[in-house]
Automatic annotation (TrEMBL):
Protein species of origin: Porites lobata
Similarity remark: Belongs to the G-protein coupled receptor 1 family.
Membrane topology per record: Multi-pass membrane protein
Location relative to the cell: Cell membrane
Pfam families per UniProt: 7tm_1
Membrane-spanning residues: 6-27, 39-57, 77-93, 114-131, 151-172, 205-225, 245-264
Residues of the G-protein coupled receptors family 1 profile domain: 18-261
Highest taxon of source: Eukaryota
Name of protein: G-protein coupled receptors family 1 profile domain-containing protein
Swiss-Prot/TrEMBL keywords: Cell membrane, G-protein coupled receptor, Membrane, Receptor, Transducer, Transmembrane, Transmembrane helix
Amino acid sequence: MNWYWILGWIPSTLAIFGNGFVIYLIYTRRRLHTIPNGFILSLALADLGVGACYFPANFICEFSPRACLQSVADDIAVAMIYSSTSCLCVMAIDRYLAIVHPLSYMTLMTRKRAFCLMTLSWLIPFTTYFIPGLCTSLHRCSINRNITVVIWTTMFEFIPCAVLLFVTVKIISIARDHRQQTTRLDTQLRFNEPKHKSYKIHTWTPARVIITVVAIFLVCYSLEVCSSLCYFTDLCTFSDDLSNAVRFLVVTNSAGNPIAYALLKRDIKRELKEVLREKNDANVVATEV
């Protein structure tokens, strides 16, 4: 049995349970009902779909071909992957506005606009990829695969990677400048007023989640981009091992995101600790009874 069919269950399981728990946490905790967490919820839904559809569908189709429709399963799985990419791009734009324009962020990113962006992040991959792909798989229509594959790859691989890299570099640069300005201001205050109490600088706090999530995405999708270049050109050979490695990293990306939220995002981390504390208290009470 290929290594992919053995190890692939690990990131798939983590993606399903990790993102499922993030969805549950945001949905049930009123304090987490914020615009930034709305984007995280949308991304978690897409990542949950990747974990639930991608590897399990491939596994079933590999070992029980009669139990699946390979082309339809691939259409659903890839649609979820493209939705995850779109959701991440929208989330990065939201964090970019929050860091670059902190004073006008609440005016720029209203709940209505956030909802529209989240809707678009799902609507675009489903209208441009899933519907045409499913129509072709069911032999209801015919499209030029050579052209559409180039369009889909450009839309959901090349452009997102370039945009996310640019936005993240810009966020890092601006956050660093803000941190330096705050440090200089704090130094001046302490010089003019020796008793001035230095305060902690949290400039990186709003940025570190999106930086981490984008970094995971770029690392995992770098091989995907390389494989696409191999597919379109003669620069390298597109092998089964390369294909399996790409699929493994794609699912790993969806599994890594909830870990980043739990470790780096303060409000989610706080609510997670509260849930664990409540569960521990309930177990103690049950034991005493």
